[in-house]
């Protein structure tokens, strides 16, 4: 961010385990992970795109003046490992480019779009290799397909509306309505409201459209934090949307902050006496948390019972109505 640093946390323990504070000399515009979590790429105010190995804490590749304009740029990793960037030329023309991180001397493709001050925000669908470009202050969304064939970045279409957008949010694929052939859903931020924008493919068939909905990334983590810090990589765990997305039981995440005093030598008896009340209070807090968890479980069980009874009553009422008719 504005402190020119990237910090990677273990949210389970509340620890900042990696601090990349010496790789950027100016503001970082955005950070993007690659598919298996081994690399990150950044776009910075110094006009550089950097590819970083966060565990080795070293820059693997970088491109100076990826876009020569002074306006902000963005960089994201694609599913195949290439990098997609948006920025500005010297003449303030908005540009998009495709890069191979193994050779960043020249872009694979470079396209100039139009002349405008609005920063282009890229939103990427890795399942279909479609990139949606939303410009701040624009009233349109352009979308492109990334392929292995020249010109590599293929323009598809433009969605236009009346009001300009101040910001944009993107729904994950598993949140879409597959029965309506919905391929993207945005949340457009206006000056006073947030408007959902739904994009669908017009098809009459009621069958599941496999070409629109290949297996997509699910909510389950492919690795635990400890495994990643040990050097393991893994692609996302994929799920099918054929029968719609059914949320599973959320895993409880309890942040247990490590005590830095744990690594110090044992304290003397006097300090033990001083800390005794604190330890007793901690034990009491743990007991209270356990009781609270039991109460919450009981409440959930009661709610489930009530829901089941409501369903049974509704069915009985329907049966009685049929008998009466």
UniProtKB/TrEMBL annotation:
WD repeats lie at residues 21-62. One of its GO terms (biological process) is actin filament organization. InterPro entries: Coronin (IPR015505), WD40/YVTN_repeat-like_dom_sf (IPR015943), WD40_repeat_dom_sf (IPR036322), WD40_rpt (IPR001680). This is COR1C protein. Keywords: Coiled coil, WD repeat. The lineage of its organism: Eukaryota, Metazoa, Chordata, Craniata, Vertebrata. PANTHER family: CORONIN, CORONIN-1C. Residues 285-319 form a coiled coil.
């Amino acid at each position: 961010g504005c402190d020119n640093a990237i910090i990677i946390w273990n949210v389970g323990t509340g620890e900042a385990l990696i601090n990349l504070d010496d790789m950027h000399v100016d503001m970082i515009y955005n950070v993007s992970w690659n598919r298996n979590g081994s690399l990150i790429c950044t776009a910075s105010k110094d006009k550089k795109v950097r590819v970083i190995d966060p565990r080795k804490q070293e820059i693997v590749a970088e491109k100076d003046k990826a876009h020569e304009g002074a306006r902000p740029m963005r960089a994201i990793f694609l599913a195949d490992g290439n990098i997609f960037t948006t920025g500005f030329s010297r003449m303030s023309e908005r540009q998009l480019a495709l890069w191979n991180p193994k050779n960043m001397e020249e872009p694979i493709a470079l396209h100039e779009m139009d002349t405008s001050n609005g920063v282009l925000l890229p939103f990427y669908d890795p399942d279909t290799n479609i990139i949606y470009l939303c410009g701040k202050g624009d009233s349109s969304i352009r979308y492109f397909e990334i392929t292995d064939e020249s010109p590599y970045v293929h323009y598809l279409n433009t969605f236009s509306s009346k009001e300009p957008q101040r910001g944009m949010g993107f729904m994950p694929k598993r949140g879409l309505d597959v029965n309506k052939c919905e391929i993207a859903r945005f949340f457009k931020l206006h000056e006073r409201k947030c408007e959902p924008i739904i994009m669908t493919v017009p098809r009459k068939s009621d069958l599941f459209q496999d070409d629109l909905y290949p297996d997509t990334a699910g909510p389950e983590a492919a690795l635990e934090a400890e495994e990643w810090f040990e050097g393991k990589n893994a692609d996302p765990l994929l799920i099918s949307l054929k029968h719609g997305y059914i949320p599973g039981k959320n895993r409880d995440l309890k942040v247990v902050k490590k005590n830095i005093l744990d690594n110090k030598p044992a304290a003397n008896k006097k300090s033990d006496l001083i800390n005794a009340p604190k330890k007793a209070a901690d034990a009491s807090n743990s007991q209270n948390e356990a009781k609270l968890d039991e109460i919450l479980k009981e409440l959930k069980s009661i709610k489930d019972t009530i829901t089941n009874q409501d369903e049974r009553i509704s069915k009985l009422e329907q049966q009685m109505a049929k008998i009466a008719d």
